[in-house]
UniProtKB/TrEMBL annotation:
Name of the protein: ABC transporter ATP-binding protein
PANTHER family, per the entry: ABC TRANSPORTER ATP-BINDING PROTEIN (PTHR42788:SF20), TAURINE IMPORT ATP-BINDING PROTEIN-RELATED (PTHR42788)
Keyword set includes Kinase: no
Domain ABC transporter intervals: 32-265
GO molecular function, one term: ATP hydrolysis activity
Annotated source species: Agromyces tardus
Assigned keywords, A-Z: ATP-binding, Nucleotide-binding, Transport
Stretches assigned to coiled coil: none
Length: 299
């Protein structure tokens, strides 16, 4: 298995050394394999090439973030992995299965830009949906839903309906739903975009804990460099349209940077700022970025 593959133009960072470092040993099976994927949209005004020659392997249990300018194809790539659309060329597999089979087998949980809740179901019933579909007994369902809602800070809102919640609260319901079944893979497209900064950092910490505890692989789209650095084992930097992988930056966050050990203190450490700078430079095409406060990036 090729461990990480960059786009054709990209320099290859020294990922092998990093992967042999502090991370937990990787199981042989990969969570996601993307090989030579192109996506061209036919529109009334002509063709739009959204993705060009994407090669990416996400190992089981690995946390990979996608970052890049608006319109570079991040959501398109996520939709292809989730079998919500078909590639124009290339192949995608999820745990060795076709993306279609993986969808049918409910191999992953999804939390996308839009919360996508069912308006006629209460908050609790939305979170319970995947459990219902998998035939989990109702008593177990209730306790699991209560636990999940507590985790996302919505314990008091179980009986509300989605339109009675703020956008950020709806997003948290969608995250709880994605986690309900403890899937081996989470596909998350800007799931924290609608959250205030405090809640966002809390959810990041929770996600780190959950993914470490459950060993779930995560593919995570974000526009926030610090968010990507805090969460990820590797950050995939994409170029403007047509979306290509420009560089894959392994997160070197020090000896105790196993995901389970990522705590609030990490956000203030030197290695954290160094990684923020590395991702910023990759986004800017690999050259040092002149700016005032080194390593400081808002969202
Ligand atoms: N269904 C579609 N039909 C035509 N063009 C599309 C379609 N979906 C996406 N595109 C185009 O493909 C490109 C990539 O879109 P995509 O939504 O994947 O970008 P993105 O990286 O997720 O952007 P953002 O950061 O703004 O969410 C854009 O140019 C977009 O206009
Ligand atoms: Mg998008």
């Amino acid at each position: 298995m090729s461990d990480a593959t960059t786009g054709s133009r990209a320099p290859r960072p020294a990922e092998t050394a990093q992967d042999a470092g502090s991370r937990a040993p990787r199981p042989a099976e990969s969570a996601v394999e993307v090989r030579g994927v192109d996506k061209v949209f036919e529109t009334r005004t002509g063709q739009v090439q959204a993705l060009d020659g994407i090669d990416l392997t996400v190992a089981a249990g690995e946390f990979v973030s996608l970052i890049g300018p608006s319109g570079c194809g991040k959501s398109t790539l996520m939709r292809l992995i989730a079998d919500l659309d078909d590639p124009t060329a290339g192949t995608l597999t999820v745990f060795g299965k076709s993306s279609r089979q993986a969808r049918l087998d409910q191999e992953y949980g999804i939390a996308f830009q839009q919360a996508g809740l069912l308006p006629w179901r209460t908050v609790a019933a939305n979170v319970a949906l995947p459990l219902e579909l998998h035939g989990v007994a109702s008593a177990d369902r209730r306790s699991r839903v209560a636990q999940l809602l507590e985790m996302v800070g919505l314990g008091d809102f179980a009986d509300r309906y989605p339109d009675q919640l703020s956008g950020g609260m709806q997003q948290r319901v969608a995250i709880a739903r994605a986690l309900a079944e403890q899937p081996r893979l989470l596909l998350m497209d800007e799931p924290f975009g609608a959250l205030d900064e405090m809640t966002r950092e809390k959810m990041q910490t929770e996600l780190v804990r959950i993914s470490a505890e459950t060993g779930a692989a995560v593919v995570f789209v974000t526009h926030s460099i610090p968010e990507a650095v805090f969460l990820s084992d590797r950050v995939v930097v994409m170029s403007p349209r047509p979306g290509r992988i420009q560089q894959i930056v392994p997160m070197r966050l020090g000896a105790d940077a196993a995901r389970a050990a990522r705590t609030e203190e990490l956000r203030e450490e030197r290695t954290f700022f160094d990684m923020v700078t590395a991702v910023r430079e990759a986004l800017h095409g690999g050259s040092p970025v002149a700016s005032g406060a080194r390593g400081v990036e808002t969202r």
